[in-house]
Design brief:
Layout lengths: L10 E3 L4 E4 L7 E5 L2 E4 L2 E4 L7 E5 L2 E5 L9 E3 L7 E11 L8 E4 L4 E13 L1 E4 L3 E3 L2 E5 L3 E4 L2 E9 L2 E4 L3 E9 L3 E4 L3 E3 L3
Length: 193
């Protein structure tokens, strides 16, 4: 059981929610492939009973902004956490400097898996995510507060923003710009890879 491999076309409606209706009889993944999608929140409607996931690839991007700390920014059936959000090659953006109001929200317990050409970016808001793993980049800027589980990434950058991890932070490079901070309740390691 899973979600239809759905290709989402370009859209930019930062104040509107996007609903993707998925066929539970094909795969377990909804894909944003070479598209740029900017919305308030994403809801995947499905009758699938298995793990649900979303993939961004081929330099696609998904921007979600939310508004309240408990807003589920990407969910299945309105309230269910996804198992994984794969950013193979592209961007997952939490918040937008283009919005006049500060954004906020959560991705729940979903693991964010970054490919070497994938990135998680937070700006102009307060966001909470689960573990971030892989070989891509994590960036917070424009006054963002990004709260995570553990982080394993190629680079972690805080540019006039804060990244706070409840787990270990392991990165090839950690960059602090314009008073930015990266903290961890556990261990921090720069491995120079």
């Amino acid at each position: 059981d899973g979600l239809e491999s759905t290709k989402v076309d370009n859209s930019s409606f930062l104040e509107n929610d996007l609903t993707v209706k998925a066929d539970p009889n094909t795969t377990d993944d909804v894909t944003i492939d070479s598209a740029d999608v900017a919305v308030n929140k994403v809801n995947i409607e499905t009758t699938a009973t298995g793990d649900k996931s979303l993939t961004i690839n081929n330099d696609g991007s998904l921007t979600v902004v939310g508004g309240d700390a408990d807003d589920k920014l990407i969910a299945a059936n309105g309230t269910e956490d996804l198992k994984k959000i794969n950013v193979d090659a592209g961007e997952l953006n939490l918040g937008s400097a283009a919005m006049p109001d500060r954004g906020a929200g959560t991705l729940g317990s979903a693991e964010i898996v970054l490919g070497s050409n994938g990135s998680l970016n937070a700006s102009n808001g307060d966001y909470t995510v689960g573990d971030v793993t892989g070989t891509g980049n994590v960036t917070a800027n424009t006054g963002a507060n990004l709260n995570t589980g553990g982080i394993t990434a190629q680079t972690v950058t805080a540019d006039a923003a804060n990244i706070k991890a409840t787990g270990d932070v392991t990165a090839g490079d950690i960059d602090l710009v314009k008073g930015g901070s990266v903290t961890s309740d556990k261990n921090m390691m720069v491995n120079g890879s």
